[in-house]
Amino acid sequence: MEYRIIKSCKEMDFSQVWEILHFYGLSDLDIDAQEEVFKNSYAVVFLMDKEKMIGVGRAVSDGRTLAALCNIAVRDEYRGNGLGKVILDHLLQEVKGCNVILYTHPKHIGLYEHWGFSKLKTAYGIFQNEEYYKNEGFM
Ligand SMILES: CC(C)(COP(=O)(O)OP(=O)(O)OC[C@H]1O[C@@H](n2cnc3c(N)ncnc32)[C@H](O)[C@@H]1OP(=O)(O)O)[C@@H](O)C(=O)NCCC(=O)NCCS
After folding, report:
1. Which atom of ligand 1 is nearest to the CA of 79?
2. Is 41 left (phi over 0), alpha (psi -120 to 50) or beta?
3. Is residue 139 part of a domain?
4. 93-126 per-position pLDDT tens digit
5. Are strands 66-74 and 43-49 parallel, antiparallel or unpaired?
6. Domain of 18: which CATH number?
7. In a domain, 108, yes or no
8. C-alpha of residue 44 to centroid of ligand 1, in Å
9. For residue 95, what are the domain limits?
10. Average pLDDT, stretch 78-92?
11. What pLDDT is attached to residue 1?
């Protein structure tokens, strides 16, 4: 499959980021807020099929010790072709040397274990909208 990898927010069409993340219910931010969180991230990855965005992901990090991966998603019709792993590998490369953490929906635990992540026994969080996360089985 032919695609381009872009690691910058410059001239990016954030309506497409919004479209992908909104489709999966991964974020309820509007387009401007989506742009803000990607621009404020340490590393971003966009996969493009010509002008069509087909995958996204970002890492929040200090660049040295700790990184959190967020919003990894591949457009529905492109799933199952290894693109999710491509996004993951590029983000990991950008935060090389860091401890990498993420939280995901309970239904994706198997995927991240498949990709080499270990379940943390001592992770804690203070979340906004905790009721939602409790109901969905995150905590
Ligand atoms: C999760 C997601 C990014 C993966 O992208 P993708 O391009 O479909 O994934 P890939 O093709 O790179 O890799 C999938 C691999 O994981 C495996 N896998 C998928 N789900 C799995 C699960 N629940 N348990 C174990 N392995 C799983 C597949 O068998 C495949 O293995 P292989 O590469 O050895 O054949 C994509 O499916 C997606 O966008 N999902 C919706 C959004 C989402 O929920 N994102 C994660 C939230 S943090």
Report:
1. 8
2. beta
3. no
4. 999 999 999 999 998 889 999 999 999 999 999 9
5. unpaired
6. 3.40.630.30
7. no
8. 19
9. 4-102
10. 98
11. 84
